[in-house]
Design brief:
- This protein has helices spanning 32-38, 55-60, 63-73, 97-108, 123-135, 149-153, 193-198, 201-210, 212-226, 230-250, 267-276, 283-301, 306-318, 331-345, 368-381; strands at residues 21-24, 47-54, 77-79, 84-86, 116-121, 141-146, 160-165, 168-175, 180-184, 351-356, 359-363.
- By secondary structure, the chain is of the alpha/beta class.
- Strand 5 (116-121), helix 5 (123-135) and strand 6 form a beta-alpha-beta unit.
- Helix 8 packs parallel to helix 12 (283-301) and helix 12 (283-301) packs antiparallel against helix 13.
- The N and C termini lie far apart (74 Å).
């Protein structure tokens, strides 16, 4: 009988991916060729495409009909079905109904692994459609056209897809690199002010982690961003997007195999807060609150200067983002988010905090008393009664 150890081996290998990011001003108009160019055909056959859009966008604009018409008219694309419309917002992630509808459309359209799903919508909708595309045939090419500032600045270029389950955020999901992402500025025009502004919380978050000068720029230009001045807003979104993509492609851990998840700074409480609030607050608002809480905790326990924590809070408020929700009163329930955060990654608890702006540090224990103090401090800081 041979010794089993003689036949044992560990071989490291890597899989090459390409992250395609495009920026346009009117993908339904003069920039449509940018979308067409990422739809590569195979074996000289037309690219087979399923076009999926969020219901709110279809109701508020004719852009989806224009994109659909251009795809039909193209000599390089076979649009397998008429425009497939689904719900958006957190509703799409809270059940399997949306995912199943996409899977049925993929099946009826005879899409294969060289076909494309083009998803046009906000971050939650992109999560759900991305999950369906990732599990169909073990992966169909996904082209994302994010329609919110939050998705364009962060999740649209991410490699995660998920839906909620067991009342927990993103419990079922996959890692899958999108085939392409197109950030189009006109897709943001019909976005309500609340949704538009709250998305910039991710720009603040990634600046805190990666680029101290970017926080200063956001502080100086917050009034222009709130007023939806196009140049400043586009600049903020693009820089946030750049920093997120750089971390994903150069950070060495795109599929979160290691302990740390630095891009989830502020998210342990944000995800729990969304559930506690019945998802009546926007993800961007929950992230802003989570970032503020962790900055205050970092100031008390990690060494972040208090003045910098206050700068962050002021910056978020100057971007028009509300930093409180009554669900924060359920402090003990909120703290359960730490264990759910640990379970989601596995292993020991690892949470990113700040020693300084642009100087993240990973911690493995949280002082519950100090964290509760941080939440109370935020409540006092934003002017709410004690």
């Amino acid at each position: 009988m041979p010794d089993g150890s003689m036949y044992s081996t560990d071989i490291r290998f890597s899989v090459p991916f390409v992250h395609r990011l495009r920026t346009t001003t009117d993908v339904a108009g003069e920039d449509f060729p940018t979308l067409l160019d990422v739809l590569e055909s195979s074996d000289d056959a037309n690219a087979r495409v399923l076009l999926v859009a969020e219901q709110s966008l279809v109701r508020s604009s004719d852009r989806m009909k224009r994109i659909e018409s251009k795809l039909i008219a193209s000599q390089r694309v076979d649009l397998v079905n008429s425009l497939h419309v689904i719900e958006g917002g957190e509703t799409i992630k809270n059940s399997y109904v949306g995912v199943e509808s996409i899977l049925k459309a993929i099946h009826s359209g005879n899409l294969d692994r060289r076909s494309y799903v083009i998803a046009v919508g906000g971050g939650a909708m992109l999560d759900a459609v991305g999950y369906a595309a990732a599990i169909a045939h073990r992966g169909i090419r996904l082209v994302r056209l994010p329609t919110t500032t939050l998705a364009q600045a962060d999740s649209g270029v991410g490699v995660k897809n998920a839906i909620n389950y067991f009342g927990k955020k993103n419990w079922i999901g996959t890692f899958a690199v999108p085939w392409a992402v197109i950030n189009d500025s006109k897709l943001l025009e019909t976005l309500p002010h609340r949704d538009y502004r709250s998305g910039f919380s991710e720009a603040v978050k990634v600046a805190l982690l990666k680029d101290a000068t970017e926080l200063g720029w956001l502080e100086q230009n917050s009034a222009k961003i709130v007023a939806r001045e196009r140049t400043a807003s586009a600049r903020a979104i693009h820089r946030s997007c750049q920093l997120h993509v750089r971390h994903i492609t150069e950070g060495g851990d795109p599929f979160e195999m290691q302990e740390a998840r630095p891009l989830d700074f502020g998210h342990w409480s944000a995800h729990k807060l969304e559930a506690l609030a019945g998802y009546e607050i926007r993800h961007g608002e929950a992230v802003a609150i989570g970032v503020a809480i962790d900055c205050l905790y970092s100031a008390e326990k990690i060494g972040l200067p208090e003045a910098d924590a206050n700068r962050v809070i002021t910056c978020l408020q100057s971007l028009g983002i509300t930093l409180w929700h009554p669900s924060l009163q359920s402090v003990d329930e909120l703290m359960e988010g730490l264990e759910e955060f640990r379970q989601h990654l596995g292993g020991r608890l690892t949470v990113t905090m700040l020693r300084g702006i642009g100087a993240p540090v990973n911690v493995h224990q949280i002082d519950s008393s100090a964290m509760k103090n941080a939440i109370e401090t935020l409540k006092n800081r934003v002017g709410l009664p004690t």
